Amino acid sequence: MSEPQGDNFDDPGLKAAVGRAWGAERCPPALRERLIAECGGPPSMKIGDEQPKLGRRLIFYGWMAAALMLIAVGLVFYLHPPAPNDRGLPPVALTLPASVADELIARHDECCKAEDHHMPGLSRDDFPTIARELRQRLGFPILAARLPGTWEFRGASICPVGETKSGHLVFDRGNNEFVSIFSLPRQFLSAIPSGKEFSEVELRHPIAGFATGEGFYCIVGSSKTESLSLEQVRSFRDQLRSDIANAEVHPSRATVAALR
What we know:
disordered C terminus, 19% strand, Phosphorylase Kinase, domain 1, 37% helix, 2 domains
């Protein structure tokens, strides 16, 4: 006959014997109170009652921990956003402060109403000379060039944008389509880092520009039927950008080549 296994407690006879011997035994009151206190329950709570309350408490603490984790992850991404270029994605386009965009649009709309926007004494239709003469008066490189296609030059002048003087060229193409080229000193908008570009549509005006170490340059467009797109204004900016870079590298020339 095989010997009984020491860890076998499934024998019905053994269970019955244990029940007869110790079935009436109860946990000592002092030990019961201590167990309840360790579980965080009130002294009057029965041991069997602590389980659902403890379960609810654990669920609550779990939700709190999850919420704190989400907040921590959000703060990490807010304070240290991932660099888009590290993942091969295009950089996020910068936009102008609303007050700056409003000032540029207001000046554009006002000057486009003038029959002749050209400043007296300034060379006409000679863009390198216009750039040089405006630079001599304003003290920073000026963006001056003929726009491609059928755009007609309406003149260049020194115009205020807010309280800042700008070199301002205006073009039109009929059908109430207008383009302004603004050249402003670097301190006009120092918030945009040198070398950065921006583009947006504000109040139905497509706007695109860039900042350099010496100046802030902006193309503003408008059209009655909104036929002038942001893509077209961006293309003007991209073509003009290399020209102003040459003017800054060779200040003695102070010219910007006309677009072909």
